[in-house]
Amino acid sequence: MFAAFCVRRRKRRAARFAAAAIASGLVAAGAAVGVTPAAADEAPQHQGGAAATLNGLTTFHQAVLHIGNQTQQLPAGLFEMTVDGGGTLKTYCIDVHNPTQENARYLETSWDQTSLGGNKDAGRIRWILQHSYPQVDDLVGLAKEAGTGPLTPETAAAGTQVAIWRYSDGAEVEALDPAAEKLADWLQGEAGSVAEPEASLRLEPGAVAGPAGTRLGPVTVRTNADRVAVSPPADAAASGVRITDATGNPVDSAVNGSSLYFDVPAGAADGTAALSVQGTTSVPVGRAFAGVTRSQTQILAGSSRSTVSATATATWGTTGAIPALSARKNCAKGGVDITATNKGAAPFSYELMGLRYTVEAGATRTVTIPVAEDQAYQLTVTAPGGFTKTFKGVLDCRTTGSTATMAGQPGSQPSPLSGGSTPGAGTATAGGETDLDLAETGASGATPMIAGTAIAFLLIGGAAVLFLRKKS
Length: 472
Known about the structure:
The chain is mainly beta. It has 6 helices and 26 strands.
């Protein structure tokens, strides 16, 4: 088993989510008051893009991490992910002290919803990705430019990961191989700042609302794919809802910048519907990937042609409030933003965390719910008439950084490498195992879920209680 510093864990099962549920994408909108959404758990928030499963560490060599007067040897290199619908991703990790989970599910994510959002050196990490392995696969040329001496894929991957850790975690870490260490030093010293890449695919906004008999939108397509397919609501034939352009012409495909509308017929019963878009593209280098359950955040180093998708929803009604709800992690405030937009003619009142909120007709209101770092959350909005809407995910906004302790110390840090392990390169087998003899991690609480144990949080305007439950 790998050491838990930025590598996959064996024997412990990660929570698994159905591929269809993950690929369905964005947070759904709320239904009109009096219409009860499905009672099943909803997929974690996803603003669109690729969804993938972690296969494991595939190309790596050894590094040495220093914390105080202690040292820890650990593998450093490239991970591989399999994309839902087809495609492969190569990633490095950006939180050296946290473990990855076996077969963990990941979603493409913007920087501001990860530790990169508050990291002034995030742009330097992207520069490193663009100027090293595997984006630069001419290792002879890379070695000559960096003055390292001969590089192999394993030592190049290790040197690149070490340089990333120095900026992502502020870690005192070095590559064991001399050439890899020289590459890390060169990348660290040369790194400039590069802007965050755009999402491979997203829809803006992810939730719209309005009265029946109108076109609801626009929902704007943002993508680097040449073209994406547009799928209408599953019950379009029964509801009469069509997906159109601004003039009412039906559409079944779109390009970057296209505007989509839900054309809801007059007299339609109050309800909600979803459209989905899907395409194939290379995900931009530097995109972040966050775990659906608690698992080491990853950053993209390379992508094959991969399937990307996104979903947007619409809510309509004839009288009263017509709310649309969405959720987004707010790392700057250490919580989750729940946004309610009311397109109806009457106020929309709802309860969240034991408090009552009102959104006036035509207004939008955002409430930030504090969530503990590295904790799963499940937040439910309820309103009269059977309205209920649940949002869930994991808040992972910070690296462990200097607060980490070495393995063997009290707390939840992982165990050290076994004494019999041999430093060197590793090559993963088809099953994701490696030839390294590494100790089992002792970290616990990898998949906690909010639901049961009460923890008090102070909110502006009052106190709310967030319920937590730990699921193994």
